[in-house]
Amino acid sequence: MADNNNPKTESHDPGRRNFLKNTGLVVGGVAGGSLLGGLFTNQMKSDDGKKGKNEETAKVDPSHARVFFGRFEDFIVLATATELIFPEDDNGPGAIGLDVPYFIDKQLAGTWGINGDDYRQAPFTNLEGLKKIEKADEKVNHSRANRGKIFLEGLRLMNAESMKRFDASFDQATEEQQHEIMGDLAAGKLDMKSIPSDAFFALLKQATLEGAFSDPLYGGNKNMDGWRMKEFAGARPSYADVIESEEFVKLDPISLTDYQRKK
Amino acid sequence: MAEELKKVDVVIVGTGWAGGITAAELTKKGYKVVALERGKEQSRNDFIGAKDELKYSIRYDMMQDLSKDTVTARGSMEETAKPVRNNNYARFGNDTGGASVHWNGVSLRWLPYDFEIHSQTVEKYGAKKIPENCTIQDWGITYDELEPYYDKFEKTAGVSGEENPVGPPRSDKYPNPPLKTTPSIELFKKASTNLGYHPYRLPAANMSETYTNPDGETINACMYCAFCEEYGCDFGAKGDPIVTVLETARKTGNFEIRNESTVTEVIHDGTKAIGLKYIDNITGIEYIQPADIVVLAGFVFTNNKLLLKSKIGKPYNPETQEGVIGKNFTGHFSNISTYIGARGFFNNEKWNLSMGTGALGAKVDDYAGDNVDHTDLDFLHGYEIRYYHLGQRPIDNNHVPEGTPAWGKEYKEKNLFYHNRSLIIRAKTAFLPNRYTYLDLDPTYKDEFGDPLIRATVHYEEQDIKRAQHGVETCKEIMTEMGADIIDLVDVPDDVKFDSKFYTNHFLGGAIMGEDPATSAVNNYSQMWDMDNLFVLGGSSFPHNSNHDPTETIGAFAYRASEGMIEYLGGEGGLLVEAKQTSKA
Lengths: 263, 585
Fold this sequence. Notes:
Helix content of chain B: 10-25%
Protein name (chain A): Dehydrogenase
Radius of gyration of chain B: 23 Å
CATH topology of chain B: FAD/NAD(P)-binding domain
Number of domains of chain A: 2
Largest sheet of chain A: none
Radius of gyration of chain A: 20 Å
CATH superfamily of chain B: FAD/NAD(P)-binding domain
Pfam family, one (chain A): Gluconate_2-dh3
Number of helices of chain A: 12
Order of helices and strands of chain A: HHHHHHHHHHHH
Largest sheet of chain B: 9 strands, mixed
InterPro entries (chain A): Gluconate_2DH_su3, TAT_signal, TAT_signal_bac_arc
Protein name (chain B): GMC family oxidoreductase
Oligomer: heterodimer
Shape of chain B: globular
Distance between the termini of chain A: 47 Å
CATH class of chain B: Alpha Beta
Strand content of chain A: under 5%
CATH architecture of chain B: 3-Layer(bba) Sandwich
Largest interface: A-B, 61 and 59 residues
Number of domains of chain B: 1
Organism (chain A): Sporosarcina ureae
């Protein structure tokens, strides 16, 4: 964002830049900090000026809309944080390029976000009790708060912490500053009400990896690029003819959309 | 008031291997059998195209709905138990076929030592070798007596395998040859052979070739598609109850499965079981299904819960060590078994790790059971070492060497680089029972119908920790010989405690088998001593946990129990085995 007048963001803001690029947003002149809430509207207006209406409609991925996250400022913190965990590099896209933020948004809006398959009878474990549990995933399980509440609290805390320390929102902070906050989160040093912050980091990381590597039907792993980077071939019917090979066998991945259509 | 239904010959709780085998054997003899299954109806068609890691391996679609019923767990009697809230801490099977549908297919016989563990230990090492709190006991049956039933199970499930060079005697070879091999399996075998061990291929209920079992059921050849553990088979190529025993029972016309039927109580008059009380999950209507024989073939927690709730048998008391129901709870607890071992990272090798099937791999049994002399070891029983090639799926496998940052550029780089360049070999350890590891009813938490949850109290004794540590060292030795550039241990600290995780799905005991009613719940036909028309099958009848997986032994005992039921129904009834008073209290 060359035109951004916040000096702190000039050096680096991979989350926002990638997010904007990969969601097809036209950046020029629109993405000032105070205008975040109006980004999508602005994009439409801006694009309308350049392209025919049909072309624009065809280009927009209808799954690129938020269902769980009401506030765009929460969503941009999520996008920035996932990209920080799994960044774009020479191997291929990062979390944003893989649509991981939209994947997480959809998951939080469903059964998983409300712990619908879990045993949810009280009494739950209080924060002091949760700190005594060794494994991060088990801390999350025993919180009274469901995953949706935990995500909102965690992301807002990261953003507030960034504002407090750097006078910049999390997505606007420098990469170094973002890593500092992520480090404190992962070390359990940020105070959350719902769970110890190291457990939120583990939840965020797990959700990021799920979005990068699950079948594209869930809205992440865009173009199966997550699988390609791991050289995982997806829903292939059979390896019976190649499994004995001495050499590594590289195969194009197959998604469930393709696989189930053939049945 | 519950509506009472027309009486049948046999009513069964559960449709896994234990219930399925019973159903097949009894219906083939012409008896009318009803199985009550609390999960949904499912068939082969449910699994066509089911190659979805998020749905099955991460969100656990085939596992028990814990929102309705779970267990509570604690590491000692002093603690307050917490409920197991999410399936990432409990992979209990559910729906038609139970856990036997999502299983990997590892099919192992237990050892002669297992069935006579107390007497053989005393004979070889003296009674003092048994630690004070260790409650091992003989099963009231020998390996030789059980062998024909093992053979029967292997032929039903179509096990693919090769002779174990250090294994117990067999009356026949496996019905199918071993599965295909891979370069990393051969590397494991070569390294362990170099070290003087005796590796052999994991016996697998994944078909190495298309197979028709003695009941006439055809199981297709395995495609090595890597969606096996935690999945139903896309191709009908895994020996499971849906493609074998349940289908055999269905064809007789004498069998009915009632899905969505949660059994809440065994109805009885104190000496005989009358039937099962259950709730239709969809309507909420209560029924009683009377039968001449009542069979509990649920998972270990279901069987124990029903016995405790129905007040059958005397509940075990860890303070006095009196009573039986709930006693000798054991399992493959994942922080001292199964998931421990050595992970190797190889910088110059790359394997096709995304391919595979449930029980593809090899293992070493040199430290299994009492295969080595334990005189100078500070534990009894043993462990086996395994290398699995079950198909490495991408969400569940993000392994980086220790010291790698937990996120960011370097994390991603190494995560991707090592995805097909890291192998883990693991120690599967036995767990011997102790007086403080048991099941009872939780005082606080309830299931969806208001009944108490089962509470598991799991205390690790010193020998369990030593056994596990020995196993990790052997894994490290083999991984070093395999030539890994970096080796990270999944180690067992001296002060390790139970982590409330029920991930291996191998949990046993509580309604244990023996020859003396004072110290056991059932005889070697899985028949309750206190109620001769009630049979309690499955892992709940195992007095301890071997290093081997339990499934085949569950299957073998189900065949034996079915034989007993047929004898019972055709004759005068009564106990099929005479009770002895041999055990010390």
